[in-house]
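Budget justification aside, the reviewers requested a transparent look at the raw inputs and outputs of the sequence design task funded under Objective 1. We therefore reproduce one unedited record. The lines immediately below are the structure tokens for a 244-residue chain.
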């Protein structure tokens, strides 16, 4: 197995594991839907699940057009994840309030809608990418030639995750709920860096960013479990202790 194939297997396996966590994480989000940022966590979680699920689905069919379709839907999930993350960060009780929140939310939602629409319809205008018949670095994924819209999408997505991480960084500096604001800050900036690095180093569809975003949903789930003061199942106990 060459390095490209090994990378494909690892990324697909990781994305699949994240999708499998959707059910228990969603159940926890629904239980907290009336508190703090429970609803935004659900949106964030669903975006991450779609992002990872359709990212991995590229390996299901060898035809470039099918891989490109799955990647387009994965892009939708990525934008929803970024939007959900920003809402999650801005509605948390530990983070500072955004100035003119309604205006910020409206502007971000409008940009997200435009981004999603253009990304999904890119086969008709090629503003985001052009599909190629060449093999990608990781053979399971579509091979695309990035265009200007692709880079704008990357910077927008990086900005969403970076903004959310910044809100938690301020809370961490202020000493608010230190254990989790620290984790959200580090993982949030790591996700933003993964988006940017994957795009610059491996332009196209190969990316570690969907998996990095999955770490944020895991932190949220563990935080919710801890606040319930419940005894975690044995398989998760070591992970909870590690994250704290």
């Amino acid at each position: 197995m060459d390095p490209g194939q090994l990378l494909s297997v690892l990324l697909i396996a990781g994305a699949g594991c994240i999708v499998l966590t959707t059910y228990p994480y969603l159940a926890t989000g629904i239980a907290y839907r009336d508190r703090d940022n429970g609803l935004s966590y659900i949106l964030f979680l669903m975006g991450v699940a779609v992002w990872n699920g359709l990212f991995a689905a590229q390996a299901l069919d060898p035809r470039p057009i099918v891989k490109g379709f799955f990647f387009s839907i994965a892009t939708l999930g990525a934008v929803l994840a970024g939007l959900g993350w920003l809402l999650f960060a801005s509605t948390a009780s530990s983070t500072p309030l955004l100035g003119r929140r309604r205006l910020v939310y409206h502007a971000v939602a409008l940009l997200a809608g435009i981004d999603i629409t253009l990304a999904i319809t890119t086969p008709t205008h090629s503003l985001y990418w052009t599909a190629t018949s060449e093999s990608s670095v990781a053979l399971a994924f579509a091979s695309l030639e990035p265009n200007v819209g692709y880079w704008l999408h990357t910077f927008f997505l990086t900005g969403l995750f970076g903004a959310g991480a910044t809100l938690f960084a301020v809370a961490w500096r202020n000493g608010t709920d230190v254990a989790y604001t620290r984790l959200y800050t580090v993982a949030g900036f790591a996700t933003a860096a993964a988006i940017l690095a994957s795009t610059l180093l491996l332009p196209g569809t190969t990316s570690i960013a969907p998996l990095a975003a999955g770490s944020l949903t895991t932190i949220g789930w563990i935080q919710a479990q801890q606040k319930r003061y419940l005894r975690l199942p044995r398989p998760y106990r070591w992970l909870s202790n590690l994250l704290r």
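Residues 173 and 182 are 9 Å apart (CA to CA). The chain has ten helices and two strands. Computational costs for records of this kind are itemized in the attached budget.
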